[in-house]
Amino acid sequence: MESINLATLQQVVSTMLSTPITELTYETEMLQGGTVGQVYLIHGEATTLTGTRLPFRVVLKNQKKWERHGDADSWRREYDLYASDFASTFPPDFHWPACYHAELHEEETHIYMEAIEGVSGLNLTGDMYEKAAYELGKFQGTCFTEKSVALQNITNLSHLDYLKQCYLRYRTWLEVYDYIRSSDCDLPKHLCEMMIDLDARSEEIFAQIETLPVVLCHRDFWVTNIFYVDDKIVLIDWDTAGYGYLGEDIASLIADEADVEHLVEYYDRCVHAFYKGFSEAAPRPVNTRSYIKEMILFMFGYRTVADYKLKKAKEAKALALATLQKIFDITDKTF
User: Do 241 and 73 form a contact (C-beta atoms < 8 A)?
Assistant: First the structure.
């Protein structure tokens, strides 16, 4: 990794430990790496003015400038949110990692933040899924009702039509669009028809979705970004956040590389918990149908078909097939 500025790190650790630091010893460990972003865990010991040595752990996220399709400023969004008063909108049981220091350069951001230790990914249990859904619903309901000044002052958020544009982009992928309509497609016919019917009714469905409440969405609300810590939910990676329609994030929770074996069960539990949390904080919407099953298909239908068609490993193809079948088995909920 690039060399760490020792003075900056010392400032960060002093802030985190709430005491001046005179000396640091540390190691770094890459948690995630890619072309445009790297995430590191920095851990070690800090020496205070009194000579006391204290352990510390902090995460450094370096994000280079890049342009996500239809969302050019997402690369710096997390910095902008941390620089705002957005943190004031979080309740005690639903929040993001604390930020100790953030830097914006011409084409890169550096954010030093709290290292979260908890249960995440496919280690989340059904009760933890349900807790995440409930707390998300309550958070979105509170934001919807209170319309805080902090939210009104944030200008860098993803667009309201993010879901629709995501779907329309996937639908232009002719390799998978034509595949489910071809005679040599070996996907079960009822799964192909599920997608073909979605395409035929997409305008009608979006017209209904657009009657749902507009809420602040995380838009990357999947199991790897969710941490269950001491009966609280900590949510990382806010770079796609923006206003969207009620239920978008639950669609991600259920279907984005989640627990396929329990997909239908978790759908039932999470949809109920989500709307319970939302209704505790906001008036019940006029539209009583969630459209979350359709949102799942808009976001992940063609992507999963592509996995089935294009991936070589038998296990990956079997997982894609099982995922599509589980989505087919969902019965959409009213609330």
Answer: no
The residue among 80, 114, 148 that closes a domain is: 114
Range of the domain at 89: 6-114
272 shares a domain with 182: yes
Assess if residue 334 is contained within a domain. no
228/280 same-domain check: yes
Domain boundary among 95, 114, 133: 114
Site of tokens 């960060």: 12
Question: Structure tokens of 112?
Answer: 């030093």
Spatial separation of the C-alpha atoms in residues 264 and 251, rounded to whole Å: 12
Residue 196 reports pLDDT greater than 90: yes
Amino acid at position 302, single letter: Y
**CA 154 – CA 156 distance, rounded (Å):** 6
Residues 26 and 92 in one domain: yes
CA distance 326 to 306: 17
Q: What is the pLDDT of residue 4?
A: 86
Rounded to an integer, what distance in angstroms lies between the CA atom of residue 232 and that of residue 279? 20
Whole-prediction pTM: 0.95
Q: Compute the average pLDDT of residues 153-180.
A: 96
**DSSP tag of 36:** S
pLDDT band at residue 35, thresholds of 50, 70 and 90?
Answer: confident
Neighbouring residues of 232: CB distance < 8 A, sequence distance ≥ 6: 92, 93, 94, 95, 135
74 with 185, same domain: the answer is no
177-211 core/surface letters (b: 16 or more CB in 10 A; e: else): bebbeeeebebeeebbebbeebbeebeebbeebee
Please check whether residues 146 and 15 belong to one and the same domain. Answer: no
Give the pLDDT band of residue 287 (cuts 50, 70, 90): low
Q: What's the pLDDT score for residue 131?
A: 98
Give the list of residues 6+ apart from residue 255 with CB closer than 8 angstroms, or none.
Answer: 263, 296, 299, 300, 323, 327
pLDDT (average), residues 87-105? 96
Centre a 10 Å sphere on the Cβ of residue 241 and count the other Cβ atoms it contains.
Answer: 25
- Domain annotation covers residue 335: no
